[in-house]
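Note to self: keep these together.
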Amino acid sequence: MSPVSGGVSDVWGEAFGLSRPGKIVCVGRNYREHAGEEGVAPPVAPLLFAKFANTIVGPGEPIEIPPEIGHVDAEAELAVVIGSVARRVSVGRALSVIAGYTVANDVSAREAQFADGQWFRAKGYDTFCPILPAFTEQGAIGDGSGLRVTQRLNGELLQDASTDSLIFDVPTLVAYVSAVCTLEAGDLILTGTPEGVGYFREPKIALAAGDVVEVAVEGIGALVNPVASAGGDSQPV
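Structure:
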């Protein structure tokens, strides 16, 4: 499989002259209820981590799970697509640098996340960032508030929340991230996932080969991916 879906390459090529997003900046624990189900305090500032382009796949392409990594979750998220260079932009000007919004799935390997104490490996496996290879223009969505975000696993509704519940809203995130690193056209900011992910349920619900995951954001669309076992030689955990 190509590390970047052809559909994503086509859309990013037409819109930005790129084969892929240059940066995928993610925000952890950005819904109060999700922090609560983890048993941790909500962050006092945006909690940032990153994924690389190897994680990107498009609709219908499999999320491939290496058999040795343990529990894997899907995470439904609203994603911001940056439309122009943004360095240290203000909250008030943040919407002007947004091209639009899309749907993302922040796939996460939980044992790796908790064992490492940081999130690069857990979030960085090949195919661990399905995205919808289209975006709805910023003018049609506004500041990204009031949108329903859902995850269904084999048709069962696991996550169902509104972006009104974001701790740090979209303009705040764009301003905060752009103060850390210069954002460029085609970059993505994944805004965080709400409560209901499988690991924090009782009993736990993990992704497994043969599953089908649908993550959706109101007004933008739905992203559907099958789940498969990764091939090749296994590596130690």
